[in-house]
Design goal:
- The chain has about 170 residues and is mainly alpha-helical.
- It folds into two domains: about 70 residues, Helicase, Ruva Protein, domain 3 (Orthogonal Bundle); about 70 residues, Orthogonal Bundle (Arc Repressor Mutant, subunit A), CATH 1.10.10.
- It contains nine helices and two strands.
- A two-stranded antiparallel ribbon has the order 1-2.
- β1 and β2 form a beta hairpin.
- The radius of gyration is 19 Å and the shape is flat.
Length: about 170
């Protein structure tokens, strides 16, 4: 048994040894909400349903990220509030963590702003963009781009990365 997000890097002989191959999609916000509510019971942290949904929407479709966010918000709620995780507490914690309502973190926003402000919306090559934002090209390609593309904010073209109209709207709101 094995799991990877980068099967293209595996050799054909290795891949052929696996007779059953499955591809998993990202979790929905509703599925992540259920996971967060269960995790909050395990952690013995009071979590309101709407607050769980808000965190789920900012978790990039990944339970690990959702649970990490729950622990960060729990700590925030215990130090700055009464320990109960409400929508207001989640909003405040997300603001402190520099995660916006769309689930974009500071580096996601830096990438989008860089393309908009320095490259006129694109196209721009990955190496040039990486230099401009101070991040490794591989990190951008494997951590940030998949999320930005799935949210309809960034497109890859043969000429380079370009912003979508959705990204322009979001950047206008910031």
């Amino acid at each position: 048994m094995g799991a990877t997000t980068r099967s293209g890097l595996l050799s054909a002989p290795l891949l052929s040894r696996f007779t059953v191959k499955e591809r998993l999609d990202h979790y929905t916000a509703e599925e992540l909400t259920i996971i967060l509510l269960r995790s909050s019971r395990v952690l013995e942290v009071p979590l309101e349903g709407d607050a769980a949904l808000k965190m789920a929407e900012c978790s990039r479709g990944t339970p690990r990220i959702a649970n990490n966010l729950l622990r960060r918000v729990r700590d925030y709620a215990q130090v700055r509030h009464d320990g109960v995780i409400s929508v207001e507490v989640v909003r405040s914690a997300l603001e402190m963590l520099e995660i916006d309502a769309n689930g974009l973190n500071e580096m996601d926003k830096r990438i989008l702003r860089c393309i908009a402000e320095h490259f006129g919306g694109g196209p721009v090559g990955i190496k040039t963009m990486a230099l401009a934002v101070g991040e490794e090209p591989e990190t951008i390609e494997h951590v940030h781009e998949p999320f930005l593309i799935s949210k309809g904010l960034l497109s890859r073209t043969p000429q380079g990365r370009i912003l979508t109209p959705n990204a322009s709207r979001i950047l206008g709101a910031h």
